[in-house]
Each structure stands twice: as structure tokens, then as C-alpha cells.
Amino acid sequence: MSQKLKLFHNPRSRAVTAHWMLEEARADYELVPIAFDPAGARDPALLAVNPMGKIPTLVLPDGTVVTETAAILAWVADAYPQADLAPAPGSPERGTYYRWLFFCGSCFEPALIERMMRADAPPLPKGMAGWGSYDDVIDTLEGTIAKDYLVGDRFSAADLYVGAQLWWATTFKAPRVADNPAIQAYVGRLTERPAFRRVTGG
Ligand SMILES: N[C@@H](CCC(=O)N[C@@H](CS)C(=O)NCC(=O)O)C(=O)O
């Protein structure tokens, strides 16, 4: 059995975030390229491990499958403690770290998708939508990223995820992101990191 981690990957997908994380951790991994079929057919090798047919999907050497970007980042951070990408379990910073790591998938991403893909529809009721509203999400992020890092005074997987999503949102000109000097300064600091440049070829 291969001792390497396997990341199902496409360079134009959320798998870039997981790839960036594996590079930050200096993990031993291989990429399994996944092509997107315009007709929507999913790769059978991917479906065999993840019935959602989604990437990123990470397969561990023992065959365990980890899906969902936040889960992959949390797993990698804990598996490579020497890379110092997460505060120690039980430390006061751990709660803040989890908060921002999970904010992306629970709040930022659905809010962004609602705003970009349902721009003409009335906003969903704030009390029902788990992310409240796009503007609440952006206000919250703006207040948080004013300091260099989300957790304490150093880079963590939470910055990697928030930074990757803000960078991704910038590429398609998301309102209040692409034209926001504080957000762009934060994204700029993170995307200068050598590991990010290695995965994006920048
Ligand atoms: N909840 C997943 C979302 C993953 C996802 O939607 N990935 C997209 C690529 S960015 C995908 O695999 N799309 C291909 C498809 O659904 O066929 C995560 O956070 O990782």
C-alpha cells in the first residue's frame, strides 16, 4: 500500500486549498488529477472513494477517506505538528482557530454562492440561512482580518482557508471583496507565501 497521501485534484477547484495546505505541511503526497466533464459525469475512481464525486478528496495511507476542505486542513494540521499550522489542542487559541476554520464552509461560501449565483433573487431570510447574509459575513471578516493573522500572532490553517476563499472570490470579482483594501491586503500577504506560489505556479 502506498505510504503517500493521495489528493484528488484539479487546479481550477477547491482542491487548490488542500494542495496549498499539504505544501505548507511539507507532507509526502501525490496528486490524482481529476478532469471536469462539461456534461457532469464524475470520474469512477473518485466516486469509488467519495460518493459525492467532489474534490478535494484526501485518501490516507490506511485507506481512510477525508472529504470537505475544512476537515482536510484540520487533519493535515494535526498530522504534521512540526509545521505549526494550528494552535495546540487545549490551548486558549484552539477555539478561535476552529471558529475561523469552519466559518468558511458554513458562512462565507454559501453566502458567496447565494450572492453570485442568485443575484436577482430576494435574499434568503437571515434567520433561516445559517450564514445570515452576505453583508453580515463580509462585515465580520473585515473586522477580523484587520490584524495580520486570525489566531494569535502567527499563520495557521484558518488563515490558509479564509485567505484561499477570499482569493478565489477575488478572481470572480465578488462584491465587497475584490474592491476591499483591507481584504486585498490580507489576501496579498497570504498569497505571497512560497507554498501558495508553488501550488499556483505564481
Ligand atoms: N463541500 C466541499 C465542496 C467541494 C466541491 O464542491 N468541489 C467542486 C470543485 S471546486 C467539485 O468537486 N465539483 C465537481 C462536481 O461536483 O462534479 C468542500 O468544502 O471541499
What does this structure look like?
This protein is of the alpha+beta class and 202 residues long. It folds into two domains: 79 residues, Glutaredoxin; 104 residues, Glutathione S-transferase Yfyf (Class Pi), Chain A, domain 2. It has eight helices and four strands. Strands 2-1-3-4 form a four-stranded mixed sheet, with helices on one face. A hairpin with a 5-residue loop joins β3 and β4. The longest helix is centred in the middle third of the chain and has 25 residues. It starts with a strand and ends with a helix. The mean pLDDT is 96. The structure holds glutathione. The site of glutathione has 11 residues, from loops.
The set of bound ligands, ions and cofactors reads: glutathione
Number of domains: 2
Q: What is the CA-CA span between the terminal residues? A: 34 Å
Principal-axes geometry comes out as globular
Largest sheet: 4 strands, mixed
Helical amount: 40-55%
SSE arrangement, N to C: EHEHEEHHHHHH
Tally of alpha and pi helices? 8
Q: How many β-strands, per DSSP?
A: 4
Taking pLDDT < 50 over at least 5 consecutive residues as the criterion, the unreliable ranges are none
Q: What is the fold-level CATH name, i.e. the topology of the largest domain?
A: Glutathione S-transferase Yfyf (Class Pi), Chain A, domain 2
Q: What is the averaged pLDDT score?
A: 96
* Oligomeric state as shown: single chain
Read across the widest sheet, the strand sequence of neighbours is: 2-1-3-4
The CATH C-level class name of the largest domain: Mainly Alpha
- Percent of residues in beta strands: 5-15%
Determine the structural class based on helices, strands and strand pairing: alpha+beta
Rg (C-alpha, Å) = 17 Å
CATH arch. level architecture of the largest domain: Up-down Bundle
